[in-house]
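Cross-posting from the chemistry board since nobody answered there.

I work mostly on the small-molecule side, so proteins are not my area. We synthesized magnesium ion and want a rough idea of how it might sit in this target. Sequence and SMILES are below. Is it possible to get a predicted 3D structure of the two together?
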Amino acid sequence: MSLREGVPQLVVFEEEHRDLRQILARIHSHSRARAVLLLDVNGQLVAKWGDTSGLDVTSFCSLAASNIAATASMARLVGEKDFTILFHQGKRDSIHISLIGDRVILAVIFGAEASLGMVRLRVRRAGAEIEAVLRRILSRMRLDDRLDVDPLCDITDQDIDELFRF
Amino acid sequence: MTFVNYSARELNVKIVYYGPGLGGKTTNLRHVYARAPTRQKGRLISLATQTERTLFFDFLPLNLGTLRGFQVRFHLYTVPGQVFYAASRRLILKGVDGLVFVADSNPLRLDANAESWADLGRNLAGYGLRRDRVPTVIQYNKRDLEGAVPVDGLRRCLGSPGVPEFEAVAAEGRGVFETLKGVARLVLSNLAQRTPGR
Ligand SMILES: Nc1nc2c(ncn2[C@@H]2O[C@H](COP(=O)(O)OP(=O)(O)OP(=O)(O)O)[C@@H](O)[C@H]2O)c(=O)[nH]1
Ligand SMILES: [Mg+2]
């Protein structure tokens, strides 16, 4: 299951992780959002910024990714290439979810102090920046040999038992 | 598979439970959820119909602690087994790192098992994946049923794929963790050979 076989696999290194967080921080402060999350299309959190206290981030990411996937499928059924943006407005909080490229999803959670227009604008600008970082990540994944997973080569039953001690 | 923040060595693994409708996929997740300690599990999310059939998926995140310096997280998903939900089933399969195929030992479900197994192969191919390259285990569930099809017969109905197998009575929790550990072991030990840059 290597990249060659087309499995979406992301290895986010420290430097790029920091860059991504900075991009999220800018969206957060400029749009006055409550929280900004970046996840991969499989629903795994890549980076976040802002106030996520009281939010079940893991569940949120999984549902956001599934939602985007379902919407993309609906788009194809009606002959659209993609619906890349989802927006849900609540009484107190709203969420803006957008697909960036074909690997990551940006989710912005914001309240009344932010405006949808501003969120849209900031998300659109950040999209290009995020894509640039992703391109760096991808080329690095092709070149970088630091991914030392040798410790996992000779996994034993005992290792597995320890992971599942319950 | 996703590594987030390489220096922190977080390893996120997506496991999908696949199989015919009513085979016991959701039951597997419920048992894992019931047994996992609070600090190691997230919420169990079930997008289900009013009759408790899976509509889109079940989702259970597990934080398994560290393994040789890696923070290991498992995301367990089930697909809806009903033929009708083919489109959402396909979506859940995307990005899968390991598969548990839950076969039903009920003799009336032999065809359904075979059909679901074939459906799985087609859907993997749709993502450019070869079935024999995706770590997979089979669980023969409902071994408690009177008249349960012998394991041999179930294996043959799936074309004897030669992957690790586990017998289970998921409703009683029997074999559930053995199965999960089985797929965990396959996924983690396969990781080294298929890492980019090698
Ligand atoms: N006898 C017996 N019944 C079981 C066993 N495991 C699950 N069941 C029952 O089988 C039924 C279906 O189980 P689910 O876990 O909902 O099946 P599923 O595979 O998630 O079904 P879908 O969501 O439609 O794909 C439930 O009534 C379970 O209680 C088992 O080991 N033995
Ligand atoms: Mg189910």
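Reply from a structural biologist on the board:
Welcome over. Reading the output above for you: Chain B has one domain: 3-192. The two ends of chain B are 16 Å apart (CA to CA). Happy to explain the token format if needed.
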